[in-house]
User: Fold these one by one.
Assistant:
Number 1:
Amino acid sequence: SGSGKTTLIDIILSLRNPTTGKVLYNSKYKYFSELITYVPQDNIIVDGTLMDNLVLGDDTLISNKEKSEIENILKCCLLYELVNKSNSGVYQRIGYGGVQLSGGQLQRLSIARALLRNVPILLMDEPTSSLDKKTSKELMKNVIDYSLKKCISLIVVSHDTSIFPLFKDNLDL
């Protein structure tokens, strides 16, 4: 954040240290940032294939994941049909800046990339801003269900009030 103030997101992402107090986390992680994956509002896309954009150069993500797990993540993020339509599957080229995909598909690709990392905390900033209401609800329901199965904590910043009840429905109070 350019305001000079330290925000909670800055601290969570290890961009800044807290001015008071401490951030404590499991010592099995060398860095706090190994605990969290961030899905920004603006998607980061490289010129290459869908798979290139899922792993962003970290081929260990492919070797460590079974094909079925990648399929589960693509289904969760509503990208499986896109993959199945192409003869190249996940190796289809998506063009410079992802020009072959819609804004909503790019947003879902960013979420799939985050889920592929399989870390304990997923922080998403406006994850449904490029989606219609129906797709927003379906995607977030899937992400919540997937996160519950994988013990991933979700932190979601959103103005999309239509997704709020999905979180309440999954709270054990």
Number 2:
Amino acid sequence: MIESNVWLERAGLFELLAKSFSFPAFDLAAALASGEYSQASREVCHAWGITDVRLDALLERVDDKYAGDEDTALHALRIEYTRLFIGTREPLVSPYGSYWKAIAEGRDPVLFLSRETSEVESAMHAAGVVNRPGLGEPLDHMACELEFLQYLCTVEGGAEKPSEGAAVGESVYETFLKGHVQTWTRDFADAIDGEASEILYRCAAEMLRQLKDCTLSKL
């Protein structure tokens, strides 16, 4: 049986990554400017057993780049997020699982009405998770999938109570991690490495890449 503190440590990493791949908010910029982001990253990665020399070097560069000025950090990150994940006609790096799965299978990507989006939405609704008001993103956006894993971990860790009849538990977590998130994280992270000019996104991509082979049986 997985102990509650282990589940909450996992939730911490998913929360950190979800914030990294969401449209930049002031709290992210403040955490970067204060050094809290890099400190939290090292702590949650250590808890997961993730040790990587390249990641350590990237976190040092994050500190050097964003230290002390949250307003400048926020401005730079919003420009870069828009350039990478939104674009003028299409993003340089698609943040949607349906895109990457379609490419891997040799199909033309389709948003909103894709099989992947429907499956992700069904899993979230079965777990008692409903769409946030005003959220226009398809639910197979990387940040949404990471937030869902965070939720499943906090439930298993006893920090959050699910609605009655919700489909949660270790098997739901493992199925979603392996069947959805891990299927496209490597391609997504590699694409970020090839396009990102802001070090935060290259750092977050490296942390995300480390999740590729993380399952309950290995942690």
Number 3:
Amino acid sequence: SLGFNKKASETTVVVAMSGGVDSSTVAGRMKQEGYNVTGITLKLYDDAKKSREGRQCCAGQDIEDASMVAKQFDFNHYVSDYQDKFFNGVIINLEN
């Protein structure tokens, strides 16, 4: 389905997984089609803190949801902690 000139089983697909429906569906479908799937989630927020709008993307339950999808479809899922880089490089810049 990706249009590469090699078998799906010979192709590794890395999916950025936010924990939402879209990225989880892509990862699951790629795995079902025979691709070697690896899921990656960037942890951007502290799980304990609440945002003004409520739930925050890429923390807490979202990471758990992405991990559960990876387990269900039997592929590796990694979480990289980017809280400091995101806060200092994005949030602080937006507030200034």
Number 4:
Amino acid sequence: MIRLFLEFFFENSCKYCGTPFSPEEQGYLCPSCLSLVEKYEFFEDLPEIPFVDGYEFFTKYEGVARELVVLYKFHSVKPFSKIIAEKIREDFSAFVSEVKPDLITFVPTHFFRWWARGYDHNEEVMKHLGFFYEKLLKRVKYAKPLAQYKEKEERERAVKFAYKVVSPEKVEGKSILVYDDVLTTGSTAREVARVLKEAGAREVYFYFFLKE
């Protein structure tokens, strides 16, 4: 009843295209805009990331996809976790079949960020993907969002020693697939892969929702 009342008196418009729509799971992006978030077919060789044995991404950090992630990460629109998972599930599953990891995990957020947002944005996506995963990492160093650092060197300093492996005995000799939301310079992936391999991981792969 409250939802119907609000819809009657307050027009809901898509934050990307401005078109009025009736929200279901979320009231920020309309179904037409969300349908534009599709797998990006990338035909060139991906640049290597130190310590990372291979990686895949779903689409590019632009347009509706960029708006979706900004709303999800910085405006606490939690329902987007389910939408992202639905978008990437098939492609993520194909990458799992390709690399055959022993363990699947995610890049965690710092406690302060979790407290401010109300959830860990990467773990929420993992919950909806339907794959068994484990919390193998902990973020122990707080820093500003990497998007606020313009230079690659600044990003590398921000994530240096930012993560630790919470269960080294679990990763020893294992192949690990890590989920993260955005690949920019590769600084986070490099540091996460480094600490996992120092803990004894045999291989480290990454899957990203977006690539800048």
